[in-house]
Amino acid sequence: MTELRGLGYLKVQTTDVPRWRELMIDSLGFAEGTGPEPDGLYLRMDERSSRVIILPGETDEVLAVGWEVRDQFALAAVGRAVEAAGTPVKMLSTGEAAHRGVEAAMTFTDPAGIPVEVFFGPVLDHSPVLTGAGQKFVTGKCGLGHVVLPTTEMEETVAFYTEVLGFLPRGAMKVGPAAEDGSQARIRFMGINQRHHSLAVCPAPHGGAPGMIHLMVEVDTLDAVGRSLDNVQKAGFTISSTLGRHTNDKMVSFYVRAPGGWDIEYGCEGMLVDETWYTSEEISADSYWGHDWSGAEPLAAFTPPAS
Ligand SMILES: [Fe+2]
Questions:
Q1: Which of these CATH numbers, 3.30.70.330, 1.10.357.10, 3.40.1160.10, 3.10.180.10, describes 4-122?
Q2: Predicted local distance difference test score (pLDDT) of residue 206
Q3: What residues in the chain have per-residue pLDDT under 70?
């Protein structure tokens, strides 16, 4: 059993906040949120004051993947488990937690080098969530969405998330060429609630910045997905993948390239897992139809860093 309830927030740094604003608010319909950094872009999806935080900086990279737990007791339990596994944990000060809009939080680094935060007690904003096209983001019991993270340490990363943090395996897909002995790398999907996967990890040629392959967010209607697809094309963003339906989470989605070389997946109709019968299956194609990636620019996580 995991103490984690869902993906709570994602905080990234970028060299181009204005372009992120054009993507997230003007095109994808995120509502403007509030937060302490005057130059930061705070994006609301629901009653939280922000779910996605974009801060200005010299590089494009992930600053924190935030996972939510129920309360202070769950937070303490996660801290003990992570420390017992040999990973140092730092409790954030009251001020640092308040800066994040939560009551308490801790931070540590996963084996892929991704900064992870675990928190409880998010501060709510009860004002109306004014999304761009009246769409409702699907969050609640399923969390904000899912992240797909690159790693050069596949086995260690999967073991950390499953054995230490308690993520449930939710299937896999082979990627890349098979080795002589028949073994083959796999993307591994993992869940902590009824969303099919809140996390996937993917073998990638380098770790470090940007530390992200994509963030998926879900909205309530196919029309909202279609309108957003029109918007991003009109705004000149690159479509990494055309509209399609995934085989594992059944999501109908498209992928758009964000500043920094990674994607936002924007979809609807994601399935809810019923753990009374679910078994971890291997998919042999990621989509029933669509999801044509032939127009995608290379992902930063798959581009070897300049030496
Ligand atoms: Fe995805």
A1: 3.10.180.10
A2: 82
A3: 305-307
For position 207, what pLDDT does the model report? 78
**Cα 73 to averaged position of ligand 1 atoms, centre (Å):** 31
Question: SS3 of 233, please?
Answer: helix
pLDDT on residue 64 = 98
**pLDDT reported for residue 306:** 66
The end-to-end CA distance of the chain, in Å, is: 42
Are 41 and 17 in contact by the 8 Å Cβ rule? The answer is yes
> What is the pLDDT at residue 307?
57
Do 26 and 231 meet the contact criterion of CB atoms below 8 Å apart?
yes
Cα distance between residue 129 and residue 141, in whole Å: 18
Q: Per-residue DSSP letters for 183-227?
A: --EEEEEEESSSBS-SEEEEE-S--STT--SEEEEEBS-HHHHHH
Give the residue carrying structure tokens 């890349």.
176
Per-residue pLDDT, 205 = 86
Which amino acid is it at 43? L
Q: How far is the CA of 8 from the centre of ligand 1 (A)?
A: 16
Q: Which helix (H) or strand (E) holds 172?
A: strand 168-175
Domain boundaries, the chain: 4-122, 140-302
Report the alpha-carbon distance of residue 46 to residue 25 in Å, rounded: 14
211 CA → ligand 1 middle, Å: 15
Residue 11 C-alpha to ligand 1 middle, in angstroms?
A: 18
Tell me the CATH number of domain 140-302, given options 3.40.50.300, 3.10.180.10, 3.40.50.1820, 2.60.40.4070: 3.10.180.10
214 Cα to the center of ligand 1, angstroms: 7
Q: Residue 136 corresponds to which tokens in the numbers above?
A: 């409702």
219 beta partners: 137
Asked, colleague to colleague, whether 4-122 and 140-302 share their fold, the answer is yes
